[in-house]
Fold this sequence. Notes:
This protein is α/β, with parallel strands linked by helices. The chain is built from twelve helices and 13 strands. The longest helix is centred in the C-terminal third of the chain and has 26 residues, at 359-384.
Amino acid sequence: MPAALSAVSSSVRRLDEAPRRSTDGPDGAQPADRRPEDGLDFERKSTLLVTGVSGYWGQRVVRQLEQNPRFDRILGIDYVDPLHPFERCEFIPIDLLNPLLSNLLQTEKVDTVCHLLFLPSRVYREELFKLNVLGTMRLLSACVRAGVSKVVLKSSTLVYGADPELPMYMQEERELSYGSQHQYVKDLVDIENFCDLFRRNHPEISCVVLRFPGVLGPSVETSLTHYLGRSLVPMVLGFDPLLQLIHEDDVVDALAHALNAPGVRGPFNVTADGALPLSRIIRLLGSTPLPVPSLALALSERLMRWFGVDFPDSPDTPFLQFPCTASNLAMHDGFRFHPTRDLREVLESFRSAADQDISSRRYEHAGNHRERLKVAIRSVRRKTL
């Protein structure tokens, strides 16, 4: 990853030289000992920008925050129009690589940003690297220029990797892994490493990254819901890793909490309490584990993709062999967030929804993702012509 790291370093240097919206006092002097969010008065109204409002998480987060009177205005950006209109959120069709993004944040006096505009892909595509990684860099650069006080990003515990040498219940300070064969995970690692440098170079901005494990629930559609929703669930022969999960509602609540909580910065693992072996999870969902050799599992995934069945955010085979468990102590003590459902309640919610007719809603979200992907790739290709 030398090219990506070089881009990260040069971008940080450019951010340090970027002109910023003034936060001086009346006499032109800088406030002493300025801390993150000193410029963000949690008693007054705030202007929020949410990226990715046409995606599943963006729609869920916006609808919850529209009920929060603290956010006087909510702006949303994405590549395509949202599936359903919002009550208060003003939609703006602009992408993260648009040079006018910085002007938008300054003109609208945005002080809080929730970044959810990530397009997953299992294999490397230059266009998606630009949208996910370089797009995040551009967004953070625009936040510096506009004087934004807080930025919240959604990530995954998959950034720790899966390896037999890794410890159990890894803390946030653990070095992230580039070992995944999954391009989306590599993009997240690049983004998180950039955010780490960004926090050190710009302590005046509170940058919060939330790392979630696998998400289940009655309406969310991910590779994990496809994987665990089968009657026969393939496992790697000879392996039974511990899994952590979180409910979809707790993901939305955690993102909303991060946007509202003062004095919070840094990465946080956000997981439901408890971990269970994969085979036990499969049985609790009423399915049957099907152990197969790792080579056969990898070949079956390739065969499915050859027939056009590609779940872009699906885990690598190593995540079905070795545990990737994250400590949630900082979530409870530092982030002060407590998921409403433990692991067994997450599983019960997912299993009870399996008997309901929610297929049309899931297909709707899947179709929207494909449309966003096509529009986003076309947008990048037009900019490079």
